[in-house]
Amino acid sequence: MNTPGSARDEVKKIEPATAPLPYGLEEEIELVEYLASLFRNKYWILLFAVLCAGAGFGLAKVIPKRYEAGVQLSLRQPDIPGGVTPDNRRASEMLTLMEHGFVLDMAGKNYRDVVMAQMNSRNFTSHFIATQNVLPYLFAKQWNPDKQEWIGGFKPSLNEAYEIFDKSIRTVVHDPETDLIRLIIRWRDPEIAATWANAYVKAFNDFTREKDIQESRRKREFLMQELRETSVVEMEKSIYRMIEAETAVEMLARSRENYVLLVLDNAVPDARHFTPSVIRMTAIGFAAGFGMGFVAAIGSVLVRKIRNAMQAYQARAKTNGEW
Predict the structure, then answer these.
(1) Is 238 exposed, middle or buried (0-12, 13-18, 19+ CB in 10 A)?
(2) Tell me, what's the pLDDT at 305?
(3) pTM of this prediction?
(4) Are the C-beta atoms of 175 and 111 separated by less than 8 Å?
(5) Is residue 234 part of a domain?
């Protein structure tokens, strides 16, 4: 048996669903009205879609063409210096903990990620931009090619150049299926794109090699200083083994041309530009124009209903003396 309180609750629950909409919009809009509006405006919708397709076509022709050049790469694991590892030592003593931490810089599980991060790093990218004369291309409007100087004392920013190069020119991707790395350079000139791609790999190998050689020399200088200060025979033997290992590291670095990245396929100029695609942009323009025309035709029904409802509301308000 329902109590009075429960009856009032049921009324409250029903009221929001049956309450009239403002401005008389409780009038139903049938599907046929939408369809009628679409058929009535079909030519306008089609015309607008064609105009948007033409705009997309014109935009694709105006935007500068860009070309893509890629280098297929394989990651080379670092060489292990002989005579210092536990399985390949020439000395009779066990490898000490100090030797293991000082000399052996074995490639970890994230070695590939580290190398790719170094390729994308601000440090190396800025080095490449500065050494390969990339700045005049990035800031072509401020560069006088005849006089080979900046216009009006313009001073290019390496930070800004890095942002441009990193966001729109260079891409480094890894293929998990083949475990290969691909360096991609995109530029307005296919010859320059291919030249930069090949030069980028060579510069990275040289940059990494030189950095490792300098680090090896720094370690050897430190070891020589420690050798002069110690008089313990076992410590001297350990230091000599580490010096030998660091010497081997430098020799391996100097003897290997493809130090970190092994080039499987060099970049070549491609006459086919990859962006913008005239067909793609034309199709996108047509689809966008058709969609906007569709929405406009449907919206016109709602606008007409709202306008009629507001006019009816104003008429009733004037009749009742409320306006």
Answers:
(1) buried
(2) 77
(3) 0.65
(4) no
(5) no
Q: How many domains does the chain have?
A: 2
Asked whether residue 229 is domain-assigned, the answer is: no
Q: Same structural domain for residues 132 and 166?
A: yes
Whether residues 54 and 79 share a domain: the answer is: no
Using 50, 70 and 90 to split pLDDT, how confident is the model at 180?
very high
Structural domain contains residue 134:
yes
Does the residue 239 lie in any domain?
no
Are the C-beta atoms of 220 and 211 separated by less than 8 Å? no
In this predicted structure, the answer to whether residue 141 has a pLDDT above a threshold of 80 is yes
Whether residue 79 sits in one domain with residue 168: yes
Token pair 């058929």: residue: 39
For position 18, what pLDDT does the model report? 47
Q: Do 127 and 106 belong together in one domain? A: yes
139 and 77 inside one domain: yes
Domain that holds residue 122: 67-208+261-265
- Cβ atoms of 214 and 103 closer than 8 Å: no
Quick one: residue 23, left, alpha or beta (phi over 0 = left, psi -120 to 50 = alpha)?
left
DSSP 175-198: ETTTTEEEEEEEESSHHHHHHHHH
Residue 75 and residue 200 in one domain: yes
Burial class (CB in 10 A: 0-12, 13-18, 19+), 232: exposed
Helix, strand, coil share of the chain (percent; to 5): 65, 10, 25
Contact, 60 vs 281, CB < 8 A?
yes
Residues near 205 by Cβ (< 8 Å), separated by ≥ 6?
257, 258, 259, 260, 261
b/e 157-188 (16+ beta carbons within 10 angstroms → b): eeeebbebbeeebbebeeeeeeebbbbbbbbe
- C-alpha angle 208-264-135 in degrees, rounded to nearest 5: 50
Per-residue pLDDT of 40-99, as tens digits, reads 888 888 898 899 888 888 877 777 778 899 999 998 876 655 444 444 444 444 445 455
**Domain co-membership, 88 together with 130:** yes
Is the domain of 71 the same as that of 54?
no
